[in-house]
Amino acid sequence: MKNITYTRIMQFITTLSILVLGTSFYLQYIKGFEPCPLCLMQRLCIITILILSIVGLCLHKSTRLKQLVIALFCFGLAGLYFAGRQMWLFSLTSDHIPACLPGLAVLIHYFPWHELVRALFWGSGDCTEITWRFLGLSLPTWSAFYFSSMLIANGLLYYKIHQHPAHKK
To answer: Cα(74)–Cα(135) distance, rounded to whole angstroms?
Structure first.
């Protein structure tokens, strides 16, 4: 595998992750949109992808690249799940929407841990609120595009690494 191809794909992943993460912080801290539990899980996946891609840029000659790319792929898949779950919640009728929960700080402080985990993985009524659109698409839809592009980029990286004789084991 050519280093330029690997490096360019990792730079793409890193740059796009910084842009998406920056946008989420901008929407929260400048525009005042509080993230719901599913948004927080998507953000966690983005942060993890960003960290792993930076590690991938630093260790581009390592024999452990295959494991790194698999980890990137798994976090991309997890992020796509959370974005998809939120889009599914958007599609529910008002009588099927789950109840809203208090903020994350209250959940952590007063609720049992299994309620916190349930809210983070399944969402709540807060996750059905569409507060921002760009080009007619909601934030989870844009997140789904981001995570899909991460899956495609990591699939390409895995294929390239698998084809390169120095990384076969």
So the answer is: 29
